[in-house]
Design brief:
By secondary structure, the chain is α+β, with helices and mostly antiparallel strands. About 30% of the residues lie in helices and about 40% in strands.
Length: about 140
């Protein structure tokens, strides 16, 4: 049975971009070994951004876009873009607002996003890995 405001994912995909720059440096382990000192000197930058979009004309359909960029000394960059479409089922008794969306999103979708990103970044063999926030940051546009 579907409860009030339950989120059902419609389409999910995760895309890796700019990997050609990474592959051009040779093997991952060799590149990371050669640049280990710079990583320890805090020259790595992680940028995270996310947005939920929905239209007042179609209040059940939502689109979420999440982006992450990992950069190191301007030579090395991996961009990850995650996009999902989802719908709220049986939400007749609920008013759609930012708080309700954030609650549903953080419970239903954010764990999936972080799992997918961790799957990719774990293959990078980085010391300490990349830390992803435990909750999503969202903004809405009507």
């Amino acid at each position: 049975m579907v409860g009030d405001g339950e989120i059902q994912l419609v389409d999910i995909f995760l895309e890796e971009l700019n990997l050609d720059k990474f592959e051009a440096t040779g093997s991952k382990k060799k590149f990371l070994k050669n640049n280990k000192k710079s990583m320890e000197e805090e020259n790595q930058v992680i940028e995270l951004s996310g947005q939920i979009m929905y239209s007042p004309e179609d209040e059940e359909a939502f689109k979420y876009i999440f982006g992450m960029e990992f950069k190191m000394e301007g030579e090395f960059k991996i961009s990850l873009v995650y996009e999902t479409y989802f719908i709220l089922k049986n939400n007749n008794s609920l008013e759609i607002n930012d708080n309700m969306l954030a609650e549903r999103f953080n419970y239903h979708i954010w764990p999936y996003v972080t799992e997918q990103i961790n799957n990719i970044t774990s293959k990078m063999d980085l010391d300490g890995g990349i830390i992803i926030p435990s909750y999503g940051m969202i903004s809405n546009e009507s």
